[in-house]
């Protein structure tokens, strides 16, 4: 069950999460939430309702196939319904994303491409099975495929409460956000993990002071 699936009230945590994982500001998130509850007063969007809504706006589209893709990608807790967080992340990528992001989403159900696997096997110490395990965990925490600085800091503080999360985050993003888009994708994430956790002392020093 999603974090805000049965709540009519949008918490501060919900808003901050969605601000970090979508392009929407607080006012827009609240507007979406109000409309979501009008159509889904229980806070749960089921496939049947999703298909009916899709067919209303896109009568020429394949509603069932699209619904299957959406739920497979964004129903990350496999609850059988989409809560508001999952719904808005789906809307963000499929309606506001760039053409490249939409294509990445459309094919994300197929997992990593062979090209991705070959790249990561060539640039990290991990074998194919390990890469796939990392990818599975990454998608659970970042279903839209984007690890933002806010999310990174939260995760770091969870595991290293005494560390300087903001400073470490700055190092990681400055080094591994190679395309400077403000978030880390899976390739960049695994490159960072490989060097900072499995690298030699020399490699870690080179990374820290680059």
Automatic annotation (TrEMBL):
Alphabetical list of InterPro entries matching this protein: EF-hand-dom_pair (IPR011992), EF_Hand_1_Ca_BS (IPR018247), EF_hand_dom (IPR002048), Recoverin (IPR028846)
Highest taxon listed in the record's lineage: Eukaryota
CDD domains: EFh (cd00051)
Keyword field contains Calcium: yes
GO molecular-function terms, A-Z: calcium ion binding
Pfam family, one: EF-hand_7
Domain (EF-hand): residue spans on this chain: 62-97, 164-199
Bilayer-spanning residue ranges: none
Signal peptide (residue range): none
Keywords: Calcium, Metal-binding, Repeat
PANTHER family: CALCIUM BINDING PROTEINS, NEURONAL CALCIUM SENSOR 2
Protein name: EF-hand domain-containing protein
Source organism of this protein record: Tigriopus californicus
């Amino acid at each position: 069950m999603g974090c805000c699936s049965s709540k009519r009230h949008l918490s501060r945590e919900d808003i901050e999460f969605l601000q970090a994982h979508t392009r929407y500001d607080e006012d827009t998130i609240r507007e979406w939430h109000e409309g979501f509850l009008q159509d889904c007063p229980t806070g749960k969007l089921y496939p049947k309702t999703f298909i009916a809504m899709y067919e209303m706006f896109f009568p020429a589209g394949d509603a069932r196939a699209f619904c299957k893709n959406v739920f497979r990608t964004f129903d990350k807790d496999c609850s059988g319904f989409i809560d508001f967080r999952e719904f808005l992340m789906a809307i963000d990528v499929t309606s506001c994303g760039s053409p490249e992001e939409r294509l990445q989403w459309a094919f994300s159900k197929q997992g990593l491409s062979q090209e991705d696997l070959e790249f990561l096997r060539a640039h990290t110490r991990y074998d194919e099975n390990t890469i796939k395990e990392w990818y599975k965990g990454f998608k659970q925490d970042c279903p839209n495929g984007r690890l933002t600085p806010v999310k990174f800091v939260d995760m770091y503080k969870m595991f290293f409460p005494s560390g300087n999360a903001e400073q470490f985050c700055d190092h990681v993003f400055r080094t591994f956000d190679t395309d400077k888009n403000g978030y880390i994708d899976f390739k960049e994430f695994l490159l960072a993990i490989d060097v900072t956790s499995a690298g030699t002392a020399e490699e870690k020093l080179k990374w820290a002071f680059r």
